[in-house]
Amino acid sequence: MAGQPLFSILNEDGSCEEAYRGLLTDDEVRQALDAMILNRILDRRLLMLQRQGRLAFWMTSRGEEATILGAAASLLPEDPIFLSYRELGCLLWRRIPLPLIFNQLIGNNRDLCLGRQMPVHYCYKEWAIPSVSSPVGTQLPHACGFGYAAKMRGTGQVALAFCGEGTASEGDFHTALNFAGVFATPTIFVIRNNGYAISTPESSQTAAESLAVRAEGYGMPGFQVDGNDLLAVVKVLGEAVDRARSGGGPTLVEAMTYRMGPHSTADDPSAYRSDDEAAEWNRLDPYERLKAHGIWRGIWSNEEEATIQASWDERVVATLAECERHPPPRIESLFEGVLETVSPQLEAQRDAYLAAHRRRQRDEFEVP
Ligand SMILES: Cc1ncc(C[n+]2csc(CCOP(=O)(O)OP(=O)(O)O)c2C)c(N)n1
Fold first, then answer.
1. Shortest CA distance to 302 belongs to which of 288, 318, 283, 323?
2. What is the pLDDT of residue 367?
3. Which entry of 259, 287, 289, 293 is annotated as an active-site residue?
4. Would you place residue 368 in the very low, low, confident or very high pLDDT band (cuts 50, 70, 90)?
5. What is the CATH number of the domain that holds 52?
6. Domain coverage including residue 277
7. Any idea what DSSP says for residue 74?
């Protein structure tokens, strides 16, 4: 319960109590390690791509993978995940094909949303990933509403929403948790407490002993968990999912973790935090802890890690090159796919815009 010591399962040497071993199968531990490796390769490569001017924007998730993957692993494929923006790992856990992810980031003509959203504003209906929305916190009432609808329709689905500890200070957080508590919706709220909201430290977000204690005021269970311990996250979220699916209502989980990289490609963390602090969290690196666990289980090795790394590296480079070859969406698509019937006013605006666009293109290519 909220207020109690942080719940962890993994010991320093990667071992765990026998009772917890079954939380994940050997295959699931391997899948999580594989996803973490890919997540880190993407974090590094996409950051470089942005620096080279080939990508507009990227947001890192290095250090937070256990929280993100642990949440995804606790759900069924049909349970929607309302992302904030930093949860690439959920897409990897659900095995959304890499080209679909890259097409979104690039905003090319194969992007399912045709470049209408910023990079990392994912939307994959087929994988139960509703659209990411830029104003932080809006995903929380969305998840609550989805849970309410699922309850009324009896679909058995559970909705999970992520937010950062900074977003927990938004009004939408209160709206969503209060509604979810009152109507006992099958919704799980996961706060990724990664220490910072861009440069604002977590200490500026609350005077209470934790964010998890807020759950009591909303009439729901609240838990703090070691967010860098995949097994601990799976244990706490697995119980929350079972409770929600069996009619027990919502849960608030505060996962204590650390953003090891910058907030986004427009941030320099050395301006607001010390190297010593980052080094301390390096010791708790969620990948290293899960790797130690895999070795302890006898299902993972350094050789296997190197082979998987090399194979993903190669696939990522080739897939990126392929996706960069696709042109931007047709300019006309700006006016398509939103309204079933286009009004005469919009038609006139479209025609004027396209005529201006053609004129601009002609001027650009005309030799003076
Ligand atoms: C309503 C609103 N206010 C401000 C912003 C600008 N903004 C984008 S991300 C961010 C920080 C959010 O921090 P946190 O919730 O802790 O999540 P984290 O980025 O650490 O994952 C801010 C202030 C925004 N997108 N929406």
1. 288
2. 66
3. 259
4. low
5. 3.40.50.970
6. 18-324
7. T
